[in-house]
Amino acid sequence: MPLLQVKNMTHFFSGLRAVHNYNLVIEPGEIHGLIGPNGAGKTTIFNLITGVYTPTEGEILLEGKSIVGLQPHEIASRGLGRTFQNMRLWRHMTVLEHVKMAHYSKLTYGLVGAFFGTAKRYREEGEIEEHSMELLELLGVAQFADQNVLNLPYGVQRKVEMARALAVKPKILFLDEPTVGMTPEELVGMMEVFRTIHKEFGPAIFLIEHRMKVVMELCEQIQTLNFGEVIAEGTPEQIQRNPKVIEAYLGKEEVE
Amino acid sequence: MTYFFQNVINALQWGSFYALIALGYAMVYSILMLFNFAHGDIFMAGSYIGFGVATGLLYLVTSGFFSLPHWLILVLTIIISMFLTSFLGILVERIGYRPLRNAPRASAAITGLMIGIILETGNLALLGARRLGFPSLIMTKTYEMGGVFVTNKKILVVLVSLGLMLALDQFVRKTKWGMAMRAMSYDFVVVPLMGVSIDVIAPLTFAIGSALAAAGGVLYGIAYPVLDPYMGILIGWKAFVAAILGGRGSIMGAALAGFLLGFIEIFVTMIFPSTLRDLIAFSIVLVILTFRPYGFFGKPYSAKLRL
């Protein structure tokens, strides 16, 4: 059984067809890439699967169960983690707090514990803090734990976002342009992070990416999207040679 | 010089009320991006609830059900009033604000004004237009320190207020609820993915803000023992000014600005006739805001980023 399966998904934004007849199969542990020009509908597909929008038509199965119509947090709690194009970090909170916050649903102490500081609260907070620090160490950003994210370099912020998404141990991780705006050095570091994550936690990864280097090196399967439709699908080698892909990115060659 | 220190003590007490009320404005604003204009009347309601609790406890003690020292009645009054008033805050959120969460901001602001009027006139209908005297739970004792006179009530007001502010600070910084509140003040998309619901955090914020206002109301009743249904309006507006001055949504900023406002008012009356107090004090605030339009701790960023 595939981990995630999307069948014939179509979505309209008040008459405008944003996604047409989209299909996807991701097996456990697989790294799957989604590429395409700006405005092709990549983020819309992410938002449809993660429950931000409900698709007009089609089926979405996570571990064989339909998740269409569920709230984003319900889908998240079934093991779908995601990062965002614009990161959405909480400006004046520390790195450690970001990762601790991701454990929110694992903290079971109530208001009494919060106001009067019961032993349970301190034990739970302690455990979560330890786990969060381990995660930050794995991603190589533990030394920034007590700093506000606002003051940190962009590459570090990206890793913090990644740690936050990983904290809930997702079975599949959706990454929306995780290397956008990175310097070449940061890019190398980030790819190392992807490999570490994949080795340590083994989640499937569904990746939107513009940088061909990243997609070609990491992904096993790639889909190319244009105007809401998949125009090519296959391994990195197949995609690279596909004339439709080249056309979508570079425009059609005029033959005189 | 003793005159100066005398006024510092007075300003600390006066500022405590503003600070306790301003915290409620700031907390609600940081989550919902709107000011709860009923908050001054929640302060009033808290004071009346405190009156009821104190009177009830005193009645039970005098009719011999149990015996409690008066200082303990005072402590219980503060705690029980905070607890009860927090439910009023939850009710205001549930009935007044939740149905309008996606409505235009102006409608939600007007809701606050209406709830305020309902609380005032409801009180008027329930208890009549007479003023009530807050039961005097502790005898006023005056201590003299080098020519400065300090009453035990002033010490009580300042210490309880500071204690509550410290507790709030710990709550917001160290607990999962506090973390969720802070995270939600930046973002409405990722936070819910972690299982945090706005339908839990918003009422909790109202509850805590209202409990602090109730503590302010009880302390106010002890310091100035005359209650009337409109007592919350002016002090509520001024605390609102303090919340803006502290920086919209900044919790500690609101507390500090509350004290600052207390200091400005008291020190204006030190120099000018007291009839000019608000005129001059708020002119000063206006000038401060001209140079610090985001307040002391406010940050210029767009609420749109959260959605």
Summarize the structure.
Chain A has about 260 residues and is of the alpha/beta class. Chain A has helices spanning about 40-50, 70-75, 95-100, 110-115, 120-140, 155-165, 185-200, 210-220, 235-240, 245-250, and strands at about 5-15, 15-25, 30-35, 55-60, 65, 80, 170-175, 205-210, 220-225, 230-235. Chain A has two domains: about 1-45 and about 55-65 and about 170-255, P-loop containing nucleotide triphosphate hydrolases (Rossmann fold, 3-Layer(aba) Sandwich), CATH 3.40.50; about 90-170, no CATH class.
Entry keywords:
heterodimer; A: 256 residues; alpha/beta; Rossmann fold; 4-stranded antiparallel β-sheet; 10 helices; globular; B: 307 residues; mainly alpha; ABC transporter involved in vitamin B12 uptake, BtuC; two-stranded antiparallel ribbon; 11 helices; 72% helix; 4% strand
Structure characterization notes:
The complex is a heterodimer of chains A (about 260) and B (about 300). Chain A has 10 helices and 10 strands. With about 260 residues, chain A is α/β, with parallel strands linked by helices. Chain A folds into 2 domains: about 1-45 and about 55-65 and about 170-255, P-loop containing nucleotide triphosphate hydrolases (Rossmann fold, 3-Layer(aba) Sandwich), CATH 3.40.50.300; about 90-170, no CATH class. Chain A has a 6-stranded mixed β-sheet, with helices on both faces. A 4-stranded antiparallel β-sheet of chain A has the order 2-1-4-5, covered by helices on one side. In chain A, α3 (about 95-100) packs parallel to α6 (about 155-165) and α6 packs parallel to α7. The model of chain A has no long low-confidence stretch (mean pLDDT about 90). Chain B is mainly α. Chain B has a single domain (about 1-305), classed as ABC transporter involved in vitamin B12 uptake, BtuC. Helix content of chain B is about 70%, strand content about 5%. Chain B contains 11 helices and 4 strands. Chain B has helices at about 1-30, 40-60, 70-95, 105-125, 150-175, 175-185, 190-195, 200-225, 230-245, 250-270, 275-290, and strands spanning about 130-135, 140-145, 150, 225. A two-stranded antiparallel sheet of chain B has the order 1-4. A two-stranded antiparallel sheet of chain B has the order 2-3. The mean pLDDT of chain B is about 90.
